[in-house]
Amino acid sequence: MATSEPKAADTPQKAADTEDQQTDGQVVANPEQYIKHPLQNKWVLWYFKTDKSKSWTENFRLISEFDTVEDFWALYNHIQQPSKLGIGCDYCLFKDGIKPMWEDDRNKLGGRWLMTLNKQRHNELDRCWMETLLCLVGESFDEASEDVCGAVVNVRHKGDKIAIWTSNCQNREAILTIGQLYKDRLSLPTKVVIGYQSHDETSSKSGSTTKNMYSV
């Protein structure tokens, strides 16, 4: 589904309608201008900011919900870009009904495609996050989009991270489809490898790194 700013098509019928609308010096609004374009899913944007005086779940704040192309762009154009967020802050975009945490029933058996950016983030971080959002709301992974739960961007000192979460880490075909299409969408060089990690492995890791189940 296209997620670019919608533009009205120039057709002979539209030209005729416009002419009719201006008859007798009166201009009548075209109803098409007020019709919103529905998305396949309803999405919820969350914001996380570390506050040690609160519990981890209390640090999450629901920003907005949307289910049309127009409402997505209205939200995107009125919030700060990830590169402007403070260290330790996150944005999380998830399908309605799925909370941005491993323990959620739709997430606990899943995992994430993870990409880490270096400290020189700025434009590259913002570009990759925007493409990630467009992949989600535009259902860009074909049938594998059903496996997508959401996406998270983490702003961190050592390197920012962007991840797409999926519902079942054993669904190999869907996961690899998502990973390859995502890598292509971000225009990453062939030599750049991104990995997929299960939430179970990540949550129980003993060291600083988590083993990849899949990679592209």
Annotation field: number of helices: 5
Helix/strand-derived category reads alpha+beta
Q: Which strand-content bin applies to the residues?
A: 25-35%
Rg result:
20 Å
Give the N-terminus to C-terminus distance in angstroms.
25 Å
Largest sheet: 8 strands, antiparallel
Helix and strand element order: HEEHEEHEEHEHE
Mean pLDDT score: 86
Low-confidence stretches: 2-23
Overall 3D form: globular
What percent of residues adopt helix (DSSP H or I)?
10-25%
Question: How are the SSEs ordered, and which strands pair?
Answer:
Layout lengths: L11 H10 L16 E12 L10 E9 H8 L12 E7 L15 E7 L5 H15 L10 E7 L5 E7 L5 H14 L9 E4 H6 L9 E2 L1
Description:
The protein has 216 residues and is an alpha+beta fold. Helix content is 25%, strand content 25%. The chain contains 5 helices and 8 strands, in the order αββαββαββαβαβ. The chain has helices spanning 12-21, 69-76, 123-137, 172-185, 199-204, and strands at residues 38-49, 60-68, 89-95, 111-117, 148-154, 160-166, 195-198, 214-215. An 8-stranded antiparallel beta sheet has the order 2-1-3-5-6-4-7-8. The longest helix is centred in the middle third of the chain and has 15 residues, at 123-137. The chain is globular, with a radius of gyration of 20 Å. Mean pLDDT is 86; it is low at 2-23.
